[in-house]
Amino acid sequence: MVTEQQTTTHTLPVMEAFYTLQGEGAHTGRAAYFIRLGGCDVGCHWCDVKESWDAGLHPQLSIDTILDGALQYSGRMAVITGGEPLMHDLTGLTNALQTAGFRTNIETSGVYPVTGSWDWICFSPKKFKEPHPGIYAQANELKVIIYNKSDFAFAESFVPHLRPDCRLFLQPEWSRTNEMLPLIVEYVKSNPQWQVSLQTHKYMDIP
Fold this sequence. Notes:
Oligomer: single chain
Largest sheet: 9 strands, mixed
CATH superfamily: Aldolase class I
């Protein structure tokens, strides 16, 4: 008999998985296998993958099946994203990926405790739900989406809680790039501890 915990651990709701280039943040331009998991209760109104929110809409795949998909490609960086991937226990998936030689990266809003073994954690907090305090000591990268001017102060509010070596990125929300990017550029020039992140995959017209 399969228990609920076993199901959670050994299968995951996968919305999509694809091989492309990382378009954002510290690893921009690197080949990566993306695994987008279903399920999110953060509720960003500007989210461009709202179809990921309902985990029940997406097939439950075994870890072996997910790994087999990743192994079809040359790259050995796997990016787990969502949705909010930390709604799920990711220990089994990351163990399998790392055993197979992958670097494991995650993109998370940080609202749930971190599970899994990670080579890189991108913490992208949202105003709509408080992050779990455990994320601060584990984040390698802070990436804040800038939708309006108040988001600069929101971004700065996290910096005192992070490790000194955490990299800091400001990224315009795609639909407001024309309005926000000039403000971000000026902000980074005045606050050079930050860097600009862009959704370069959209400029390249790739997934």
